[in-house]
Automatic annotation (TrEMBL), chain A:
Keyword match Phosphoprotein: no
Compartments reported by the entry: Cell membrane
The species this protein was found in: Bradyrhizobium forestalis
Domain of life: Bacteria
Protein's membrane topology: Multi-pass membrane protein
CDD domains: TM_PBP2
Cellular compartments per GO CC: plasma membrane
Protein's name in the database: Sugar ABC transporter permease
Domain ABC transmembrane type-1: 72-262
GO biological process, one term: transmembrane transport
Keyword Transmembrane helix (UniProt): yes
TrEMBL record, chain B:
CDD domains: PBP2_TMBP_like (cd13585)
Family annotation (InterPro entries): Bact_solute-bd_prot1, SBP
The entry's keywords: Periplasm, Signal
Keyword Signal: yes
Entry GO terms, CC: periplasmic space
Signal sequence coordinates: 1-22
Protein name (record): Sugar ABC transporter substrate-binding protein
Family named by the database record: Belongs to the bacterial solute-binding protein 1 family.
Coiled coil: none
One Pfam entry name: SBP_bac_1
Amino acid sequence: MARMATTRRVAISTAVAWLFGLLIFFPILWMGLASFKTELEAFAVPPSFLFFHWTTENYATVQERSDYLHHAMNSIIIAGGSTLIALLIAIPAAWSMAFSPTKRTKDILLWMLSTKMMPPVGVLVPIYLIYKSFGLLDSRIGLVFILCLGNLPIVIWMLFTYFKEIPRDILEAARMDGATIGRELVYVLTPMAIPGLASTLLLNLILAWNEAFWTLNLSTSNAAPLTTFIASYSSPEGLFWAKLSAASTLAIAPILVLGWFSQKQLVRGLTFGAVK
Amino acid sequence: MKHVLGAVCGASCLLLAVPAMAETTLTIATVNNGDMIRMQGLTGEFTKKNPDITVKWVTLEENVLRQRVTTDIATKGGQFDVLTIGTYEVPIWAKKGWLVPLANLGADYDVADLLPKIKDAVSADGKLYAAPFYGESSMVMYRTDLFEKAGLKMPEKPSWDFVIDAAKKLTDKSGGTYGICLRGKAGWGENMAFLSAMANSYGARWFDEKWQPQFNTPEWKTTLTTYVNLMKEAGPPGASSNGFNENLALFNAGKCAMWIDATVAASFVTNPKDSKVADKVGFALAPNTGLGKNANWLWAWNLAIPAGSKKTEAAEKFIAWATSKDYTKLVASKEGWANVPPGTRTSLYQNPDYLKVAPFAKLTLASIDAADPNKPTVKPVPYVGVQYAAIPEFQGIGTQVGQQFSAALAGSATVDAALSAAQSATEREMKRAGYIK
C-alpha cells in the first residue's frame, strides 16, 4: 500500500515537473517552430502548432543576408572575455570579503550592488563620450570592458556567498601547514568552490551573451555580436516573425548547447550551500 | 634583439600604413524594410562602379535605430556615414546642424524629378538635407469580392460616412470577418499616425497657432468617438494591440473587409505569395468629411549624412546612387518593376512598365499629392508634418497621447477621460519645453 502511494507520488511529481518544464520551455519551442513556418503562417490567427508547411527557407534567408559566424565569434569573444576577466577580479575580492571581513565589508557589498540599481540608459551618453575619446566605440575590447564591469557586482556577490559556505577551519589547517595566501587560494579554496565557480561562470556567460543594451548601443559592425544580429530582423513594415525566429534560434543555439552539457555543474552550483 | 625590434616596428608601420592607402569604408545605418534589404543586396553594383569604396551595413529595428543614431549624432560619435531617417527627423536635425546638406548629388541626379511634397519634406531653408529613398502615404485597401457580394461600390474618394456604413454592413463576427481594421497599438508612429491623419480630415489639429494643445476641441471629440465606436462595432477583437504588421496579417488572411494604412502595404496585400486575397483587393483614397482634407499621411524614408562623418564625399556618392533613376532601373532589371522603391520620383509614375504591374500606383501618387505637411489640416497650424508635428518633443508627447487613445479603444478609459488626459499631458510637456506659459 505504502509502495503504491510512493509510486503515485513520484508519478504526480514527475508529471508536475514536466508540466512546469514545458511551460518554461514553451516560448523557446514556439520560437523554434515559428522559424520553420512561412511568414504568413507565423502570423496566422489561430496559430498552427505542428501541422503547417515546414520550411527551412528562413534559415537560408538569414544565412544569405547576414554573416552569422562573424556575429557569433564576436559574441564568444565578448561574453567569454568579460566573464573571465570578471572572475579574475572577483575571486580575490570575494575571498578577502568572505575570509577577512572588516567593519565595512557589508557596506562595500551593498555599494557594489547599488551600481546595478541605476538603469544603464542613465549613463549612456557619458559612457558613449568616454568611449569615443578612447576610440573604443565598435571595438570588442570596449564591449568586454563594459560587460565585465556590469556583471562584476553579481559575480562578486555570488562568489562571496559560495565562499562563505566553506568552513574556515580547512583554510586554517592549510595555513598551519605553511600554505601562502596564493597557494591557499589556488590549491585549497578554488577546488572546493568549483561548483560555485562553474555556476557563476555559466550564469555570467549567459548574462553577457544576452546583454542587449550596451552591445546594441556601443557597436556598429566590427564588434557587433548576436544581439545586433537578432535586432536586424525586426521590421516596422512587413512580416518578419519567421525570419526573426530563425535568427533568434541561431543566436541562442550555442548557449543552449553549452547549458545542456554543463547542466550538472549548474544545478550543483545553484544548490551549493543548501542543506546537505 | 635589435633586429627583432626593428622587424616589429616595421611590421607595425606597415599595418598602420595599410588602412591609410586602402579604400573608404562607409557605415550605413538602416531599417529592416523590404526596399532597404533589396538595396543591401544590390550594394555590389555600387562598389563595382566605385572600387575605392566598401560598404558596411548596420540594420536595426526602427526604434532602436532612432535611439542609436540619435546618441551617435548628438555626441558627434562619427560611427555612421549614411543614415536612414524619416521625414520627422529631417527638419529637426537639419535645424540643429546635425546633417550635411546634399549639394553634390551629381549633374544627372535630376532633383526636379523628386515629387514636390516629398522634396519639401526633406528640405530646410531651400537646401536638400536628405535624399528620399521611398515615400508613402496612406489609403483604403478593400476587398472587392466582399463589396460586390454586399452590393456596395467603393467611390474613388470615399467619405467617412460611407466607410463607416460599409464597415458595419460587411462585419460578420461569427464568420471571422471584420468590416474595418485600423491601428490601435500605442505609439507616435503607430496609432497616432493614423489618428492624427483622421483628425485632420475632421478639421482637428494638434496645436493652435500659439502652440496651445487642442484635444479639448469638439473636432477631436468627434474623431475619437467615431474611431472608438467604429472599431467596437466593426473592428477585430483586441484591436488596441494591432499595429501595421498585425493588421497586414489580418488583411492577408482575409479577415478585414477594409484596411486604411500605408500605401506600401499595397505591394504586400497583392503579392500572392503572402496574401490569401491578393487578387481581390481594390484601392481608394483615404476618407474625408468634405472639409477638403483626406485622412492620409505623408512619410518617406531618406538617406542623409550625419555632421560627424569624415567621409562625406563617398557618402554622397552612395546616396546619389541609391536614390537615382538608374537605381530604380537596376531594381526593375533584377527583381521586376513591382519591387522598385515607390513614392519619390515623378518619372516613375509616368513609366508604363511600372503602371502595368502596380495597379495601386495612381492612388499612391494621388494620396501623396493630397497630403500637405505645411498645411496638414483645415485650420492653420504652427508646425510642419501631417501625422506628426516636427518638434523634438513630439515623440514623447505622441506616445503618451497614443497610450490614452489606445486605452479608450480597449475600453479601459472613456473617450472624454482619454481626451482630457491627453490635453493635460500635452500641456504639461509643452510648458516644460517652453512653447507655452
